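worker-03 picked up job from queue 'complexes'. Input manifest follows; two sequence lines, order preserved.
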Amino acid sequence: MSTFAPSTIDLASRLDRGTPAVEVRDLRKTFKRRDRKDGRFARKRPWPALDDVSFTIARGECVTILGQNGSGKSTLVRLLSTLLISDGGTARVFGHDVDRESSTIRRLVNRVSVEASFFKKMSASENLSYAARFYGMTPRQTRTAVPEILGSVGFPPDRRSESMENLSRGMQQKVALARALLTSPVLLLLDEPTTGLDPRSKLEVQEFIRQVRTAHDATILLCTHDMAEAEALSDRVGILDRGRLLFLEPVADVKKRFGVETLEEAFFAATGREFENETSEDDEYREVFG
Amino acid sequence: MSEFALETRNQLVGLFGIVERNMYLTKRYFLWDLAFMVWTIANTLTIVFIARAAALTGQLTPEQENTLAMTLLVGATIWAFLGIIFEFMTETVAWERWEGTIEYTFMAPLSRLVHLFGQGAYAVLYGLIRATILFFAVALFIGIHAPQANYGAALALLAIASISFIGVGIMTSVLPLISPEKGAQLGFVAQGLMLVVSGVYYPVSVMPEWMQWIAKISPATYALRGCRASIVDGAGLEWANVWPLLIIAVLATPIGLAIFKVGERYAKRHGKLKRAG
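worker-03 finished. Artifact:
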């Protein structure tokens, strides 16, 4: 796959290959919210979204963070993409501090989130061109790059000029992936990219993620609650539970550590709860951080 | 290409991207914009007809009636022009939050100054076109004459004033970052307050003295005064109106940007960039 955004190519080639792609140390983020049980006018209480999270991702690795809704996955992705400011600890992307060197980080990182967010009245081509301009891509460059990248995600050429609002959720998610890759990110943050997709679209997106990894030299941090997806795509898997990262290891090591056959069982062994069994307390978390 | 030249190039391409996106959206919402234009013309007519009503008292000569109508029309046109700028600026955040694209824009390597100035540049272009259509549509409808008008000078002054308007607009664009629900509406409050002290339909001298002091720091005061002088009396671009606008522009833009950055930091600390807050 070709790379397109000129400024990113320059930065990527200058990155030290020995520097970890992501280095997170004791990262904390707390939001304040009013507990429904305490009444409408009660004082807001702090709710930890990330609680002393530490991990490292090597360049070229694909790492998955598993967690239920509200476990802090999206908060982690937002912190790494400079959309949130942490309350403590440090996060570095290719050696650059996310809080203090945010403009450098922004050239290196892109993200696909669960909601494929676009200007709905604009077409896929227009939305991609708009996003590409922020990374220095001129109309001449996007005229060839946009059809090429849309083609590579399997987007039908005859629908490129159609409003986003007329496209299915699966189609929109493909455009979201294309948007992220158009800017040639060295770190790709995928926040539940296949949630809500039909099985076929899900497999297509997963296949595309594999291709990106092999052909694009990208480091991937995938956040999901799909255990099968995590197992199929990643080198290492971690479980984030109520803001705490319980471990981050190869799938085989996780199963061995807990003496179990599946990641679901590993989750149960690590947390004492069923993965799909979300309590009302989890729902409250989801309202704040989901 | 040196790093500085590459960065400058990228920022300019980004600025073009903002203008280009707004063009796409104007094209898509053209019929809605047309309906809004009709509303603006109707609203302006309700103001300019006051001159016709005043003439019924028999105390105005036809020439005085024409001057009064033109004075009101210039005020209403600048109100509409400023309305577009403030709407675009406050919607910088509100619109993107509604579409869900705000996080992608804020995590892009585009400087906030270029981002906001791109939004302002399109607002000025679009606002000037709408203001011109509004002015001539109402003048034609009511039958107002401006034989001495120096439209070139009026447009040039409006263009200079626009830099200050963008600066003030940047200050108001922070409001939806702080309050996702009500912030956008507060932008219109700022617009109304600026115009009320600037003599939108009356001379500044009729206001209480403390309001006249505030009028001195409002860019709309000089835009209104200069445009009226150019259209009604045929005056050229007067330095007395230009230098205060230049000073306000030099101050308003960095102050606006600093305020926006404080708001952006607050939003990032409290997780308010996200649509659901």
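worker-03 released lock.
Chain A has eleven helices and ten strands.
Residues 16-114+184-289 of chain A form a domain with the Rossmann fold fold (CATH 3.40.50.300).
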